[in-house]
Amino acid sequence: MRVPLIISAPWIKAQPRRSDAIVELVDVLPTIAQLAGLALPAGEVFDGASLVPLLQGEAWRKTAAFSQYPRRVRPTGPEWKDNSIIHKDRSTFTHMGCSVRVADWRLTEWVLWNKTALRPLWTFANGSSGVVARELYDHSATRDFPTDFNQGENANVADEPKFAQLLAQLSARLRSHFPG
Exposure string (b/e) for 83-120, b if CB count within 10 Å is 16 or more? Predict the structure, then answer.
């Protein structure tokens, strides 16, 4: 999430110099295809949307970006230690960090992972939650074009009661985007 992205299409007039629009890396493929005049393959599903309308100064409707990051927590030792997934078989993933980023907030819910179905285990048959941790970060004071990409993610406010309604709304968006 928070990847700097620069697109230059000099033949498009009146391009905005900068934008604080929420976009995703999955938007790059449809954008390049449209800029190159290529049609995307028929019958294929693409999650992204072309950014050409945004480049042309048109209204942009995407209000959230989503991402996932796996972890492999082992039953012994601290949960945070040696849980990297780099160069590990995905069958060893035990948890998934499902994130949603909106204009002023980022929520990540660390949820148990169904390795067979490759889906988050939001709830179990007995009604218990598969969510083991939550991170909610306020980005409302973050500059539009920060040079410190960790700015604004130093205070996890997920447990503060005044953010309970926001947490519930963002959590519902996660469950809708990443069904279990």
Answer: beeeeeeeeebbbbbbbbbbeebbbbbbbbbeeeeeeb
Q: What residue spans define the domains of the chain? A: 1-62, 65-177
Q: Is the dihedral of CA 63, 170, 130, 69 positive or negative?
A: positive
Residue 51: which of 66, 64, 67, 35 has the closest Cα? 35
Distance CA 30, CA 151 (A): 30
Percent of the chain with pLDDT over 90: 46
pLDDT one-digit tens code per residue, 42-74: 999 888 999 999 888 888 889 999 999 998 887
Token digits for 13?
């007039």
- Per-residue H/E/C for 31-58: HHHHHCCCCCCCCCCCCCCCCHHHHCCC
Comparing C-alpha atoms, which of 78, 65, 178 is closest to residue 131?
Answer: 178
What is the distance in angstroms between the CA of the first residue and the CA of the last residue of the chain? 22
